[in-house]
Each structure stands twice: as structure tokens, then as C-alpha cells.
Design a protein that fits this description.
The complex is a heterodimer. Helix content of chain A is about 35%, strand content about 25%. Chain A contains nine helices and ten strands. In chain A, the strands form two sheets. Chain A has a six-stranded mixed beta sheet with strand order 6-7-8-3-9-10, with helices on both faces. A four-stranded antiparallel beta sheet of chain A has the order 2-1-4-5, with helices on one face. In chain A, helix 5 links the parallel strand 7 and strand 8. Chain A is globular, with a radius of gyration of 18 Å. By secondary structure, chain B is mostly helical. Chain B has twelve helices and no strands. In chain B, helix 1 runs antiparallel to helix 9, helix 1 packs across helix 10 and helix 6 runs antiparallel to helix 9. Classes of the chains: A alpha/beta, B mainly alpha. The interface between A and B is medium-sized, with 26 and 27 residues.
Chain lengths: ~240, ~280
């Protein structure tokens, strides 16, 4: 049973087609990167997968259940591209936000998760007072604290410094390899995408490519899309780190 | 007159109890509304209350039950505001403006048509907590219990929806249901607040304690509790000073809320300056 199944998904906004006929599956333990130019529908696809947006056509299943009926949300860890409505005066502390929705508050787990993201010292600070990068780390901690089976990250490293970026990728890879978590990563970070992800989905309103990195690197069509130089960079990174999988 | 004599009057005790409960409810809900940029919903619902009271008086329901009778129409208006905000083309402020202007226009037309209850209707514009009756006191107790229970029971969900609605949905929070409850309770709170501060000042009870508490915020729970504390403090001081100085209680309560806000903001700024 695939963790994610997307069938013939079409989404229109104000009559304009943002996604058209998208079809793919993601199996358990796969580390998938979704790439594509700005406005290609990556975030819209993620929001459709999570049921935040409702497609006009097609269906999405998570863990074998239609998204409309899905209720095992504790299995999902999601980090949005940008918090849609965060009020900078929001009086919640980092601790309150990271533990948000957890049925049982475990101080030890909280402390370990915050330390892993190097924000242990910010536990009692208000989330609205933090820099964007610190907020992003807190949101990563929130997504990771439940040890979810499916992690969906929408451009998670945009505001992170290189060191935290490395920690983030390391943690997600560890979750994927050791605990069998499925990771879906929307990213523009072509320099690292090949290092961690096994599968790639290239989107430009339609599904241009879906498959393994090996197939991607061998694809002449993709060379046409990315240009030989970009494709070489992505594939070279994958060869360096990914060959050991 | 001795200041303590104020507390010996039954109607003052009733006003203080009902006023404190209504202010606490408004402050609790107000924090969620202010943080979600729905601050002016109180104004919108107050204007709708004006129209609803006009309908109730036109129908000929006893003024004794006006508060109760106005509730359904205001609740419908509150849900209408919520529904309108679901449209991507109408923002919250515009949705509030639409429902608000409909309420006030209906009130004016109905009062003009009837020609007989203008005095009664306009007395609701300024409210008078000192005239709170047993029905309204009972209603305040029930609404306070309901809101307190809803906030305790749904605290995690309310927190998540206030933080980020989309994220809350991916945590399994039934955001539609939570919003429905929040907007319904706000409608009830606005109708009751009409008695405390009058239609003109209802939104002050929703906004000011929350804003004052946000100046101090150290955590979400403590901010909620301090909002309630400021709201109740303003009601008690407002009623005492209104009684002693023979001034309108609603306006005094709102003034004390503003004094608290200015004081807390001033102290905060002073402390921040010293730290720097």
C-alpha cells in the first residue's frame, strides 16, 4: 500500500488550471524531491495532498485512505512554505508551539528535539519575537517531534543557515533510513536534492518527470528541460552521496 | 457616601457579578479574535444587535427579554460574517462591514417605521449594567460556563487554529467546527456585552483586555488569564467609580480598560528602555 497515491489530480484557481492530470505514488520509506520552476504548482500539489485544497478532479489517498476520510494525522509531519496567518504578536512560546497538538507533553522529548535543531535556549521565547530562520527551526522541531511516518516539507531550508540546513537534511535522512519514514521535499535547492532524495518529481503544472534519480540522470528529455549543466550538478551530487543507498 | 456602601446594594452586586462574567467571556474570546485579525467583529455584531433589538421591539417582545430574543439574529449574523470570509474575494474587514451596515440600516428603518420605540432602542446604544435583571444575570452565568468549558475542552484546537489555520488542518483539527463555535460564542458575548457597555462600545470589551494582555505576553495561557484579569478589574473599578461619580458605567468600564492598556504599554516600554 503506497503512502501517497495521487490519481488524475486537476486543480483550477479562478478558472486557470494550476495542476493538470497529476498521477503518481510514493511508497513507504521513499525520500522524494518535488522540483519545478516558480509557479509550477508545487505548493498547490502539497496542499492538495494534505486536503487543505480540494481538487476539481481526481483523488488523493494517504496510507490507503481517501483524503476526505483520512484521520490518522499523527502520522503526518508538515512544514509549510510560509505560515499563512502568523500574527507577529502571537503570544505562544516556542515550547507551546512545538508541543502544539501533542496528546502527551514529554519534557525530555521536547528538550531533545529543540536541542537537535539548536534552539534549546529559545524554548521560553515567544515565537513571534524570533527571526524567520529561528521560527523555521522551531517549525521543523514541531514537524519532527512526533516522529511521523510521512514528512512533507515545503521549501524548508529557505531561511536556514548552511549549518542548520545540514542538520535538517541529516535528520530527515536518518528518519527515512532508520525509521522508514517517507519524506516529501519541495525544494529549489538543486545542489543538495540529489544527495538525499532517491526519487524525483519534476512539475510544471503537469507532471514532467516522475521516477528515480538514475532514470532522471539518464533522461535526454530532462537534459532539455534543465540544461545539461544543471542536470549534471544534480546527478553528480546524487552519485557522490546517493550511491551508497 | 462611604465607598464600601457601594457594595451593599443588591443591584450593584448583580451588576458586578454579571459584568465580570460578561467581561471575562469577552476577554477570552477577544484574544482569539484579535490574533486572527477579527478585532472589529465586535463592532459589526453590535451594529447587528441594534437591528436585532429593533426587530424584537417591533414584534412587541417584553423589554425584559430583549437580550435573549436578539440572540438568534446576532448568531446568524456572526455565522454570515464567517461564511463571507471563506470567500477568497472578501477579506474579514469587508465581511464585517457588509453585515454591520445591514444591521444598522435595518435598525434605522425599523425604528423609523415603528415610530414608537425609539427611546427604548436608543437606550441600548449606551447600555447600563446597573439595570441588569435576573434573566440577564442567569444568562451571563450560563454563557460564562459554556465559554469557559469550550476554551478548556478545545484549548489545543483553538491554539492551533489561532496559530495557523492550514497547519491546524494538517494536525486533524476540525477547523470549520472550531470556527463555527468561536463565531457563535462571540455573537452571544456581543449581545451580553451590549448590556455592559452599550452597542457603541461592545468591541472595546473584546479588543482592549486582549491588547493589554498582549503587551505582557509571556505565554499563551498566561496571556489569556491576564486578559480576563484586566477585563474583570476594569468592570469592578468602572462600576464603583460610575456609581460614586454618577457617570455612565459602560463608558467608565471602557475608560478603565484604556487606562490599563496605556499603563501596561508604558511600563513595558520603560522596562524595555532600561534593559537596552
Amino acid at each position: 500500500m503506497p503512502v501517497i497515491r495521487v490519481e488524475d489530480l486537476t486543480y483550477r484557481y479562478n478558472g486557470a488550471e494550476v495542476l493538470s492530470g497529476i498521477h503518481f505514488t510514493v511508497e513507504r520509506g521513499v525520500y522524494l524531491a518535488i522540483v519545478g520552476p516558480n509557479g509550477s504548482g508545487k505548493t498547490t500539489l502539497v496542499k492538495n495532498i494534505l486536503g487543505i485544497l480540494k481538487p476539481q478532479q481526481g483523488r488523493v489517498d494517504l496510507f490507503g485512505t481517501r483524503i476526505e476520510d483520512f484521520n490518522q494525522w499523527e502520522k503526518i509531519g508538515y512544514l509549510p512554505q510560509r505560515l499563512s496567518g502568523l500574527n507577529t504578536h502571537f503570544p505562544g512560546t516556542v515550547t507551546e508551539v512545538v508541543q502544539m497538538g501533542l496528546p502527551k507533553k514529554d519534557p525530555g522529548l521536547l528538550s531533545r528535539t529543540l536541542d537537535a535543531m539548536a534552539i534549546g535556549h529559545l524554548a521560553r521565547r515567544l515565537i513571534g519575537e524570533l527571526s524567520y530562520g529561528e521560527q523555521q527551526r522551531a517549525m521543523l522541531a514541531r514537524a519532527l517531534i512526533r516522529r511521523p511516518q510521512l514528512l512533507i516539507f515545503d521549501e524548508p531550508t529557505t531561511a536556514l543557515d548552511p549549518e542548520t540546513r545540514g542538520i535538517f537534511y541529516g535528520l530527515t535522512q536518518e528518519l527515512s533510513r532508520k525509521e522508514g519514514a517517507t519524506v516529501v521535499l519541495v525544494t529549489h535547492d538543486s545542489g543538495v536534492v540529489g544527495q538525499y532524495a532517491q526519487h524525483l518529481l519534476y512539475l510544471d503544472k503537469k507532471l514532467i518527470f516522475s521516477g528515480t534519480f538514475r532514470d532522471f540522470c539518464a533522461s535526454v528529455d530532462m537534459e532539455g528541460f534543465f540544461g545539461p549543466a544543471s542536470q549534471h550538478i544534480i546527478c553528480h551530487q546524487h552519485d557522490l552521496k546517493g550511491s551508497g543507498r | 457616601m462611604d465607598l464600601l456602601d457601594v457594595f451593599t446594594y443588591g443591584f450593584v452586586q448583580r451588576a458586578m457579578l454579571a459584568g465580570s462574567l460578561i467581561a471575562a467571556v469577552s476577554a477570552l474570546l477577544g484574544l482569539f479574535l484579535v490574533l486572527r485579525r477579527f478585532s472589529l467583529i465586535g463592532d459589526g455584531l453590535a451594529h447587528t444587535t441594534f437591528g436585532s433589538v429593533a426587530v424584537v421591539l417591533l414584534v412587541g417582545i417584553s423589554p425584559f427579554y430583549v437580550t435573549l430574543a436578539a440572540l438568534p439574529l446576532v448568531m446568524i449574523s456572526s455565522l454570515a460574517i464567517y461564511r463571507l470570509t471563506q470567500s477568497r474575494k472578501i477579506h474579514a474587514d469587508a465581511a464585517i462591514g457588509i453585515v454591520s451596515s445591514l444591521g444598522i440600516a435595518a435598525g434605522i428603518i425599523l425604528s423609523s417605521l415603528s415610530g414608537g420605540f425609539n427611546v427604548d432602542l436608543f437606550s441600548y446604544l449606551f447600555g447600563n449594567i446597573l439595570t441588569v435583571n435576573q434573566t440577564e444575570l442567569l444568562l451571563s452565568v450560563i454563557v460564562f460556563a459554556l465559554v469557559a468549558a469550550a476554551v478548556v475542552y478545545c484549548y489545543e484546537d483553538l491554539f492551533a487554529v489561532t496559530f495557523d489555520q492550514e497547519l491546524a488542518r494538517t494536525m486533524g483539527v476540525q477547523t470549520g467546527r472550531i470556527n463555527f463555535v468561536l463565531f457563535l460564542l462571540t455573537a452571544v458575548s456581543a449581545v451580553l456585552a451590549m448590556k455592559v457597555a452599550g452597542i457603541m462600545l461592545v468591541s472595546a470589551l473584546l479588543i482592549l483586555p486582549a491588547l493589554t494582555a498582549l503587551q505582557l505576553s509571556v505565554s499563551f495561557r498566561k496571556t489569556m488569564m491576564s486578559a480576563v484579569g484586566f477585563a474583570v478589574g476594569a468592570v469592578l473599578l468602572g462600576i464603583v467609580f460610575a456609581f460614586v461619580l454618577n457617570l455612565p458605567a459602560g463608558a467608565m468600564i471602557v475608560l478603565f480598560n484604556i487606562v490599563f492598556l496605556l499603563l501596561v504599554a508604558g511600563v513595558r516600554k520603560f522596562c524595555a528602555g532600561r534593559k537596552a
